[in-house]
Amino acid sequence: MAVQTLTPFRFDNSYARALQPGFYAPARPATVPAPRLLFLNRELADELGVDAEALGGEAGAAVFAGNALPEGAEPIAQAYAGHQFGGFSPQLGDGRALLLGEVIDTHGRRRDIALKGSGRTAFSRGGDGKAAVGPMLREVLIGEAMHALGIPTTRALAVAATGEPVRREALLPGAVLTRVAASHLRVGTFQFFAARGQIDQLRQLADYAIARHDPDLVGTPDRFLGLLRRVAQRQAALVAQWLNVGFIHGVMNTDNMTVSGETIDYGPCAFIEAYDPEAVFSSIDHGGRYAYGNQPLIARWNIARLAEALLPLIAASEDEADVARAVEQATEVIDAFPAWHAAALLRGQRAKLGLPVDARPDEDEADAALVADWLALLQAQKVDFTLAWRRLADAAEGQDVWLQPLFADPAALDAWLARWHARTGAHGGTGADRAARMRQVNPAVIPRNHQVEAALAAATDDDLAPFERLLAALKRPFDGTADQADYMAPAPADVTAGYQTFCGT
Questions:
Q1: 255 is an active site residue
Q2: Which terminus of the chain has a lower count of CB atoms within 10 Å, N or C?
Q3: CA torsion angle 220 224 229 231 (round to 10)
């Protein structure tokens, strides 16, 4: 059993305090034979008000591997359900994760501190509850890349090797991730209680979520409808940000959609290279349900499932008229989702094009058409998504020479560029100023899939140097400096064509 040795976190555990067992199952992390720290996020530790120096040695490795339970921790496995690839599982829960507790960070924000890969829980359903080095370091790379790109995300505080193997497709070295999140409340958390008809518990959960994420709604008559609306708006904006950097989550089950609006669970995720709305890299997504271009549709579908779960709370009573009114109100939110998403997407695309993000409403249709035609060009000519946007910034300065070689048919590009120059020129300013703004939103460096796999393969063989170099580049996505050149080049087309990602479970 884990023992208490360190007090690095000032825990204030509202979830365990406000809610009772049934919302969670108490648990303890498994003891491992040889804890060793592979990664410590010192920047994040400072943000959390944690002494990184105290956690950098053997004592820290013991904490992050689960061998030492910090003072004030109340480890629990949270209960939740979820639709997985469209099929409903009434009980999932943290099968290989534990919420150690919560801290208030240096900005006054409440943050969860959780272990992933720390062993079996009451929700493990036959799994071993463990994790391997590669998937846990993938969470570091993608999470830190998303953070640097300005996209709401859970983050890795640490990864510790366990010194024991885990069996997946082969025997792999084990590891535990320490994940930080605004919360781990999911759409599936609400589904868990709704599916059981436990309305009192559902109300407790919703009131807790509102107090934590939308405190201005506390006590208001329509707070549950308000919660649905806020979650929908956050997810509409989040998925727009994903699309604008070419990110595919890969497993958008309802248990992987947070109410906080943070990206969670970097399992079978990937970034597109040649632009293709139908791109799928997840080995388990056989039907393309979670393809790149389907993500807004799936997000709306997930919001509809949240609406169903919240319906007993949105309705003023069980009276037929009240229920009908609640259905109408929830449907209005679901139907508003595409417009919220489209507005967030276009706002981001305007910035990427060098246009004012707050353009007049009468310009929406023309700007949306300009973007659509640009993306159609990229798709038709199989152009790398990230490079095309980045080199469009060069074209803003008149340097078309860097953009044109990406296109097999430069004539089609030239016709589009003429429209774009006319549109951007109408707003004045110099091409240099426009290019500078565009380079602040169009990354030069993303987690290229082949680079990620190479770094993780080396780390699995106990060579962390490639991982550390890639991580350093990902933390500066907009620089585009010479030392990042190796990380800006796309993979050969044949490598991307056969690329698959895996869950790691």
A1: yes
A2: N
A3: 120
